[in-house]
UniProtKB/TrEMBL annotation:
It is found in: Membrane. Residues 9-23 have a biased composition (Low complexity). It comes from Symbiodinium necroappetens. This is Scn8a protein. PROSITE patterns: EF_HAND_1, EF_HAND_2. Keywords: Calcium, Membrane, Transmembrane, Transmembrane helix. The chain crosses the membrane at residues 113-131, 159-178, 185-206, 256-276, 339-362. Residues 387-422 form the EF-hand domain. The keyword Manganese does not apply. GO terms for cellular component: membrane. The lineage of its organism: Eukaryota, Sar, Alveolata, Dinophyceae, Suessiales.
Length: 523
């Protein structure tokens, strides 16, 4: 039998998915794989099926008449092996079986459905943690506050939570093992893989040596909640989560701007904190300790807010970002009413002006950086195209009064004559002034210009006519104009040469005619 080499996709030199598992048999057993790991159905001719195989990186096997006689049975299934059985087929080797298993595991791990189910398991694990914390809180509250016994609401709660924890732990362990088997050394190149591995190892150690661990096992279990951030990876693949992906991308993009903002605020607040600390210390705490109980109470209150640099710094952030009147009242009632002026000025400048400017710059720069994200740009373009197709479909259904699947010139004129529809088209940046000219431009995409416009041709035509001219359109016009100028110059040069060869020497007195001829030739 002739073995047909199958070119790998994208010009790679990797082995073809078409392989022989029994080279010494009278009729080889072939397995033809598709990209998603499933087996394809039979195809023996050079037909459209072969084109489908070629796109997947494999070519159907061509069998001659002698080989077909040896075929005893053939099983074809989309999700099962595509096998040619003969009388002398041997079993596949161990390495081939392992390779097939690894490919199936890789297809499973790369499947978005599997990723979604795993994220659902992670979310359910977090819900179980919350319910367990609720159960323990009710038990602790019953001890000190005389509430109802938790067993009245959570019968056998500890046993149920333990079983659920074991199930979740086993699922996460199996996932990490599968990724290790498939990715091998590449597994350690990803930060998420390291996190998953550490969490699984900590869980295994916690189950094996729970009493000997120096750290509370409950704290280690809470580390598994960090896996909730894996939901953000799933957001990139699902278009329904575009808003959530935009927010997560914007937050991630704002890290640099947020750092500079925090540094600026910290410097300003540190300056005010030092001033208040030194001012109040010299004004209020430098004297000897007073024996008056009222004065001592006042000093304790002021010390609570401004006694040390750390307390003073926290107070300054509090009056800037939180509730400022209580601190203002402490100083005005216990120290001096002149502090009221500072707090009012500070609130107007720092609380309104500076914080407002910081918020505006932060939002502007964050969304500017997020708008450069490739995924966001592609999804925005896809949404715009889907919206355009939907609107053009509505326009086509409204215009196709004959219901023949095409729009002719008369139907198009009726649509444009409707003021409401004309205004709707104008809102879509398609301002039609000349109906005949617009119809000719729309028909440029149609092969049969006498048969009207189909829905697809209407979508493409309107998309080209919408909006103002783009840079690409202007460059095309400039290029075509330059080409026409070169052709005109060549034509002008040819006319000049032809005129010089054909025009006889002019007699005396014909200067006026020669000048007119030269002017025409130069033109």
């Amino acid at each position: 039998m002739r073995h047909l080499p199958a070119p790998s996709p994208l010009g790679s030199t990797s082995p073809s998915p078409l392989r022989s598992t029994t080279p010494n048999a009278s009729l080889d057993m072939y397995e033809i794989d598709s990209i998603d790991g499933s087996r394809v159905s039979e195809s023996f001719g050079r037909s459209e099926e072969e084109a489908r195989f070629s796109q997947m990186g494999s070519v159907p096997v061509s069998l001659n008449s002698d080989s077909v006689d040896h075929v005893s049975s053939m099983h074809t299934s989309r999700k099962s092996k595509f096998v040619f059985n003969s009388r002398n087929i041997s079993a596949p080797s161990y390495n081939q079986t392992t390779s097939t298993t690894l490919r199936q595991c890789e297809a499973l791990l790369n499947n978005p459905t599997f990723e979604a189910l795993l994220c659902l398991v992670i979310f359910l694990n977090a819900v179980v943690f919350a319910l367990e914390a609720q159960n323990k809180g009710m038990a602790y509250g019953h001890i000190g506050f005389g509430g109802d016994l938790p067993d009245l609401f959570w019968s056998n709660g500890d046993s149920i939570f333990y079983v659920l924890e074991m199930i979740f732990g086993c699922v996460f362990t199996v996932e990490v093992v599968l990724r290790l088997m498939v990715r091998q050394h590449l597994f350690f190149c990803g930060a998420w893989n390291w996190l998953d591995l550490v969490i699984v190892l900590v869980w295994i150690l916690g189950q094996a040596f729970e009493e000997r661990l120096p750290v509370n096992s409950q704290v280690l279990r809470l580390a598994r909640l960090i896996r909730l951030f894996r939901l953000l990876r799933l957001v990139r693949r699902i278009q329904q989560f575009d808003s959530l992906y935009l927010m997560s991308t914007a937050i991630r993009s704002s890290s640099g701007i947020l750092g500079w903002t925090a540094a600026l605020l910290f410097l300003i607040q540190m300056l005010f904190a030092l001033v208040f600390n030194q001012l109040l210390y010299g004004f209020y705490f430098s004297d000897s300790v007073s024996t008056d109980e009222f004065v001592k109470d006042q000093q304790e209150i002021v010390y609570t807010y401004f006694g040390t640099f750390s307390r003073s710094l926290l107070t300054m952030f509090e009056i800037t970002l939180a509730n400022w009147p209580p601190v203002c009242r402490v100083l005005t009632e216990n120290v001096s009413e002149w502090f009221m002026i500072f707090f009012l000025v500070h609130k107007v400048t720092m609380g309104f002006a500076v914080i407002g400017v910081i918020n505006g710059v932060l939002m502007q720069e964050t969304f500017k950086v997020a708008s450069y994200d490739d995924t966001i740009m592609m999804r925005t373009k896809q949404k715009a195209m889907q919206n355009h197709i939907r609107k053009m479909q509505l326009l086509f259904e409204e215009a196709d009064t004959s219901e023949d699947g095409r729009i002719d010139l008369q139907e198009f004129q009726e649509i444009v004559a409707d003021n409401e529809l004309k205004a709707w088209l104008g809102a879509m940046e398609l301002d039609i002034q000349d109906v005949g000219e617009a119809w000719d431009l729309l028909q440029d995409n149609a092969k049969d210009k006498s048969g009207g416009l189909t829905a697809e041709q209407l979508v493409l035509g309107v998309a080209k006519l919408q909006g103002t001219a783009k840079s690409l359109d202007l460059q095309k016009v400039i290029k075509e104009q330059q080409g026409m100028m070169r052709k005109v110059e060549k034509l002008q040069k040819g006319f000049r040469i032809l005129a010089e060869q054909c025009v006889p020497p002019s007699p005396p007195g014909a200067s006026r005619i020669n000048s007119e001829t030269e002017e025409f030739v130069s033109f």
